[in-house]
Amino acid sequence: xxxxxxxxxxxxxxxxxxxxxxxxxxxxxxxxxxxxxxxxxxxxxxxxxxxxxxxxxxxxxxxxxxxxxxxxxxxxxxxxxxxxxxxxxxxxxxxxxxxxxxxxxxxxxxxxxxxxxxxxxxxxxxxxxxxxxxxxxxxxxxxxxxxxxxxxxx
Amino acid sequence: xxxxxxxxxxxxxxxxxxxxxxxxxxxxxxxxxxxxxxxxxxxxxxxxxxxxxxxxxxxxxxxxxxxxxxxxxxxxxxxxxxxxxxxxxxxxxxxxxxxxxxxxxxxxxxxxxxxxxxxxxxxxxxxxxxxxxxxxxxxxxxxxxxxxxxxxxxxxxxxxxxxxxxxxxxxxxxxxxxxxxxxxxxxxxxxxxxxxxxxxxxxxxxxxxxxxxxxxxxxxxxxxxxxxxxxxxxxxxxxxxxxxxxxxxxxxxxxxxxxxxxxxxxxxxxxxxxxxxxxxxxxxxxxxxxxxxxxxxxxxxxxxxxxxxxxxxxxxxxxxxxxxxxxxxxxxxxxxxxxxxxxxxxxxxxxxxxxxxxxxxxxxxxxxxxxxxxxxxxxxxxxxxxxxxxxxxxxxxxxxxxxxxxxxxxxxxxxxxxxxxxxxxxxxxxxxxxxxxxxxxxxxxxxxxxxxxxxxxxxxxxxxxxxxxxxxxxxxxxxxxxxxxxxxxxxxxxxxxxxxxxxxxxxxxxxxxxxxxxxxxxxxxxxxxxxxxxxxxxxxxxxxxxxxxxxxxxxxxxxxxxxxxxxxxxxxxxxxxxxxxxxxxxxxxxxxxxxxxxxxxxxxxxxxxxxxxxxxxxxxxxxxxxxxxxxxxxxxxxxxxxxxxxxxxxxxxxxxxxxxxxxxxxxxxxxxxxxxxxxxxxxxxxxxxxxxxxxxxxxxxxxxxxxxxxxxxxxxxxxxxxxxxxxxxxxxxxxxxxxxxxxxxxxxxxxxxxxxxxxxxxxxxxxxxxxxxxxxxxxxxxxxxxxxxxxxxxxxx
Lengths: 154, 797
Prior knowledge:
The complex is a heterodimer.
Chain A: E1 3-10, E2 13-20, H1 25-32, E3 51-54, E4 57-60, E5 73-75, H2 88-95, H3 105-118, H4 124-130, H5 142-151
Parallel strand pairs in A: 1-5
Antiparallel strand pairs in A: 1-2, 3-4, 3-5
Chain B: H1 34-39, E1 54-60, E2 66-72, H2 74-77, E3 82-87, E4 111-112, E5 118-124, H3 127-136, E6 138-143, H4 150-154, E7 169-177, H5 180-185, E8 189-197, E9 209-215, E10 220-225, H6 230-241, E11 248-251, H7 267-279, E12 282-286, H8 289-295, E13 301-310, E14 316-328, H9 334-346, E15 354-362, H10 377-393, H11 398-403, E16 411-412, E17 418-419, H12 424-434, H13 437-440, E18 448-458, E19 473-479, E20 485-489, H14 498-510, E21 517-521, H15 538-565, E22 572-574, E23 578-581, E24 587-589, H16 590-598, E25 604-610, E26 632-643, E27 650-660, H17 667-686, E28 692-693, E29 696-697, E30 716-721, H18 743-755, E31 761-762, H19 766-785
């Protein structure tokens, strides 16, 4: 497979990497960029564990080609804590037990991050809609909803 | 929460039970490894940095049942980049978590018994080479007749899957307690129903993965895996690879859930290790979601016939039950599952007579195993459903029917299970109140209903899988010059929060802040052996060991402090950060106490261990060990549903659940576990089911295997009932499974309340509900046409 140069911004940092045309963004992030916070939980587009933000929108890295991110801004779970301080969502998921095994958590938090950026005071229904593509097998979602509300200050 | 006056007296107490003062035990405590999880820093098996690593991949059987004539791997071996190709012949022994049922090879040998069974494996330098090698392996498998249902496998002329199992019966159980015939004769009402349950899967979000490194120079193996049972994996690696166990190290990194999928050693872990040895390096095997469904080990498809006798008061007079489980191709935990189904069927209540027959059947489908609520979930649905049916016929409220059968502890059930604490009465009272049952039930609009059910579960199996004579749990504590306390435990935290709980327990006993504690868990080179995270054993067993270890460390510190302060140990008032000579202002801070304790001995290491008392280990009859536990948890829940009679869609509006966890060491985590258990019960009850065509899984992904999303998941209100078990750590019992069992029957009872239809076939998916609604319409039309419309619908109850 021929490779071409991919230029994009990942977590605020400009990167240039030679990538194969069929390389998935998920494998680029985990393998090339070493950002293993983004998880793979299925065989493509089923579970939401790989949710990242592309130009601020929640997207599934497991069904997105890395090459499609040319010139774009990609944000992963590793970008949220700034200077050692967890983001409000991270703090809330930690304190309210929105995470148990933690495997869906990065995707869940990134989907919630996109929600709070466009809707700082979401209702239960808003949260359910925004996180409807993210499966969690541990929590029953109750404390995830509580965590998002807590992060929103409610 | 920490009202010590509620401590339960009585029971077979040996030591005075430790009582939490509530410094850390009893406090809502975020997970001690939660920061790693929310920041993405947590490293799961697939995330581990591994250096130069080969890609491992498994070739699976396309045949459901057949004799392996030949596996030709010559072409695969000659592909550049391929470093190892292995088959079943590369293993020294078969495996199976139960010592008397080791009938599975990591890669099939002689026969294949289900589609997707691993038959060969490759390690290569990259994905392309590994794929090419898999494609180049030639399989010559002669098909045999294959059986995809328990009935087909039990048919008279069916070919045996396993030579030593005639009739394809893995385990037949026939138990009777009390005078069953007399019990039915004494009943005012006897009813019998049949029930059917689809097979369900764990669906943990983390995909299976293993990393193994073999050092040829030393003949040493290190395996990192997603396991819930590092110790069983360790033993099985030694056995299957023919290695000395001292040459093996097993490490459990962060694990993304298990729910029972990973409570036995799994083929991919053994295969990865064998590939690493064959290749003489490091191999990483990452499995797909589809692979997970082929590995399976979930809850079996089950048929239940249940007959109950009941007095007008609601008191149960007799139980007669037959359960058939489609177990899949290999043993796994199968014999335990079929025994659990009988053991926990009736032990929730005071029942005078029981007959139970169980059949665990081998079939050509992926092996079933232990799934959260192991063995007892389907049986609970049948029992609690029939209880409601009969209560309805007798004009009893569902709460009255349960209250007519309650146990008073200490109590020994018919099947010799010891009950020392029993929070069901409080659980019932709370859910009745919280749900507004008395004022709302029977007055809701058509299509909306309330349903009740109860359940229970073990806090760890009282008899271990290996009867080695060792304690059930061991904890090591280390304290050194720095004043940090390290808990060394083999207990596998898989997200349930066991490491946090152990830190809380040790901090509580030593009266030190949680920040002083570190937990090193599940690394066989460092930590004491632990049987693993299954049967909800860790809080109870390892928690008790942690209390004892911390008490021993406290004794050492107090003794040293007393010596330093030149008083007797009993004169020391220990307060963690400081200790004081009673009645004086002479104190010694924690660092001083540590310094004193290190004199002449250096680094402190102490141990605590715990075992279940013999009287909790069950009776003497065959299979009596299964179901025995040192402490049962209990739960009751009320479910509110809305049923759309045009579409058959069932929406769960709300759940009120009360769980008797004995004592909530971490109420935050217990709530989370209870909510997760209820919700997992909801998935099975509403939408989850595997499906096969000629043994080929039709739903091996998270779209067709329908776990509930956040959209259809209701608020779940939790009440923690604290019955203070006399044997539990600070009175605690399990909290992760017991509330699962009662969801499905509460849902079925609620659907019946909403639309008058009794579902005996789970999941209650829209097609099944609609079919039941239409069947009723057909019956009603038939009755109208023959002029018996005044008769009540017999399915109404």
